[in-house]
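batch_manifest entry 22 of 60
target: IS110 family transposase
source organism: Streptomyces yanii
requested by: lab member K.T.
priority: normal
notes from requester: please return tokens only, no post-processing; we will run our own comparison against the previous entry in this batch. if the run fails, retry once and flag.
--- input ---
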Amino acid sequence: MTGTDTEADVEHVVIGGVDSHADTIHVAVVTDRGGQLADAEFPTTTAGYTAAIAFMAAHGAVVSVGVEGTSSYGSGFTRAAREAGLTVIEVNRPDKAERRRIGKSDPIDAYAAARAVVSGRATSAPKGDAVAGIRALHNAARSAIKARTAALNQIGHILICAPDGIRAKYEVLRGDMRVAALVRLRIGSDPIHAPVLTALRTLARRVQSLTSEHMALTSELDVLVTRLNPGLRAAYGIGPDTATQLLITAGDNPARLRTEASFAALCGVAPVPASSGKTNRHRLSRGGDRAANAALHRIALVRMRRDQRTRDYVARQTDAGRTKKEILRLLKRAIAREVFRLLTTTVEVPEIADLRPARQAKNITLTAAANHFGVWPAVISNIERGLRRDDAFASTYREWLPAA
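--- output ---
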């Protein structure tokens, strides 16, 4: 091969960029130095994706493709490109300052996506299909909770304006007791009370249905999350909902997460300097994925209440003069560090399936075991069923059972 042939081969290396929409995708092709070559529009169909990939390949060897919206409108093209053996890079939308400077159109955005890959500004791989399924179930579960809350609020509003007899009877009840009582309502034929009672019973039945739906979806999510990352799900204070949200934020491919600091910034828990004069402090970040931030916040609250190590840490920080907000900031940052490790490395989870059969074989009740260890029976039950992780206690419990 001559030097001229080598230079020709280098010149034919190209990078693609895709601006995705509901019905169309706009594809642009640039050189490895960012020079414009061509662009075209294709439909969001299997045939359209094939034609778009062929269009890019016609201009040279495609090194990688920057796609805007890999988890939304661009998900179909992302799958097709991966199946074709192309390297797909997730690209964020151009910032507002750049859009004001160069304008906004589909070709401009497609070229910007390609140049983001050329410049190295975009480097993250798209999220995998496993997380896409988890996200769909999570959205369904969240919508069920929102609808349930709306129905409960409607019940409360109706009772405020209901006739005195109805209001006095049901306003004193709370939560599930009120819902259960309203489900058993007998309407009667009173023209004033009947419409109100019908509305209350309908809403109460809706609440029960949505509660069952949410429980079923959460159970399915728990199975999927545990299968995908057992170490994350087994960590203390991380339930099905918070584990699901953290996986949705991070994705199921560890290559997306370059450093622990970048993951903390992604979750909005990277400390932000807030010093002035003699004051030297940091504050919580207001950026990042707020849903992931909320998940870390819930984990921190659970550990502050129930985890002895965390409670000891809070006591030490309080004695040092830190406020609750500052302690929460430190805790969330520490939890983000732990979650990053769980997301990027394989963590072995101790087996607990033998605990319940061993206890039952000895005819030991949950109450008897709980009394021996000085804990509630629910603690033993949760550990046996894998709903709570406490490796030290589980090991002690396993050693005690044969001698009990």
